[in-house]
Amino acid sequence: MKIEISQQQKQIISPMLLQTLGLVILPAQELKEKLEEEAKVNPAIQLEKKKSEKQKNLSQRKSPSSFDSQAFLENLSASNFNLYNTMMEQVRESNFSQKEIKIAEIILSSVSEKGFLQQGNGKDSVKQIDLPELIANTGISLEEFEKVRQAVLRLDPIGIASYNIHEYLSLQAAQKFGTESIEAKLLKDYLTLLEKKLYTKIAKDIGVSYEKIEKAIANISHLNLTPVSSLPSGYPQYIVPDAFLNMNPEGIQLILNDEYIPEVKLNKHCLNLYQNQTFKGKKTVLAPDERSFLKENIEKAKILIENLKSRKEIIFKVILKIVEKQKDFFLKGPEYQIPLKLKDIADELNIHESTVSRVVKDKYIQTNKGIIHLKSFFSTNVGNDKTSSKSIKETLKNLFDAEDKDDPLSDDKAVEILKKKGLSISRRTIAKYRAELRIPPAFMRRNPK
User: What are φ and ψ of residue 341, in 5° steps?
Assistant: First the structure.
């Protein structure tokens, strides 16, 4: 029998490192809940609410624009805070212009808990919002406001920022049954007759059978009554930004939002018991199993405290590196976002790529451009190593927005223009990005003659 000796190299992850990685993946809200759960089962853990003015001072900082989005965010209720985040993430991914993003912020910060652009919620009296008052001193016209609102209406879920239930039902009917369907026609032109239940008159006017009108009404009755009712079950109610960023040409100020997370300390009473110190003038003697129980939980508490420090350090370093890489995005605009991979950040910080992935998962950062998902800062390069796909989309959108509608740009013409800018993009890629931006082909953008 031949005996062979071989040497293998294996990566052994310690329980402490595993817990650190587990904590890193949790956003602020979930971490808070996790710590509260740990405190319930471990008597050696004591949670204390942090007292700091850092977050308060940052929130009072004025936005450079005339619209103070932070003030709007502070007035949002917990139930529609996450709705705002979800919708604004779609707005940014759709590459709205910077002014359109600001308008979208105003719109989405003003919707009711049911998703309507109305004043009043729930049991309160509800009325259509006062638009002139809403956009006063913002430099935004009613036409600009309505153009962006129409785009927001068609995000997911459809109908967020509808003025009323009639508009919301009309949007659903057009999407589900078609703009020329009986359902869409009933909601558009026959609302008064519907309320009076004059179905025979409607059928005769449209030129269809009474039965078809009944069926269309039944279809309408199954539509959602509020925009938020179409959200999936289990939809999270509250998302807390994991960091606050204030950036200007002079420098970067990044503050982790750990004020929301309770401070973890060792319970002094448990520590004194374990060390056989006096308690209220009496010396306590523990049984062996009691000492073993306290020792185990005190060690767990110490490890948790150290892991929380490591979590904070890792998250801060990763977010700061992302911000440094995407500095031009914050200072100049979305078109200056560079292609960035998880590996780029991992290599510079000398950590594993999976750690960066854990940091950016389900985490948001509050900036002067609104609340942004950390994952949105990562994108592939197009054309050359310095241009990201998101940057190309932003450039294309600005190009098509500024075109002559009497002679709109073809995809081939867009290729030529981008080439002059030093961007070598294929016609097929242009068509793909145009479709993702929901911009129709040139012949559909041409002014009618």
Answer: -115, 155
Domains of the chain: 11-49+233-379 (no CATH), 95-154+158-230 (no CATH), 389-445 (1.10.10)
| Strand pairing category for 251-256 and 45-48 | unpaired
- Which of 133, 80, 84 minimizes the C-alpha distance to 105? 84
How many angstroms from the chain centroid is the CA of residue 318? 19
User: With bands split at pLDDT 50, 70 and 90, how would you rate the model's confidence at 281?
Assistant: low
Distance (Å, rounded) from C-alpha 98 to C-alpha 118? 25
Report d(CA 421, CA 221) in Å as an integer.
53
Average pLDDT over residues 232-257: 72
pLDDT in tens, 80-103: 556 777 788 788 877 788 889 889
- pLDDT of 105 strictly over 50: yes
Find, among 99, 221, 217, 111, the residue nearest to 155 by Cα.
Answer: 111
**pTM of the complete model beyond 0.85:** no
CA 127 from centroid of its chain's CA atoms: 28
Contact 210, 199 (CB under 8 A): yes
**205-216: per-residue pLDDT in tens?**
999 999 999 898
Instruction: Please state, in angstroms and rounded to a whole number, the distance separating the CA atoms of residues 104 and 87.
Output: 9
In the block, residue with structure tokens 């910060």: 109
In this predicted model, which residue has the larger pLDDT, 108 or 386?
108
Rounded to the nearest 5 percent, the helix, strand and coil shares of the chain are: 55, 10, 35
Query: Can you tell me the distance from the alpha carbon of 237 to that of 276, in angstroms, rounded to the nearest whole number?
Result: 46
Q: Tell me which residue of 298, 350, 331 sits closest to 42, measured CA to CA.
A: 298
Calculate the alpha carbon distances from 174 to 171, 256, 280, 415, 439 in Å.
5, 45, 74, 35, 19
Per-residue pLDDT at 205: 92
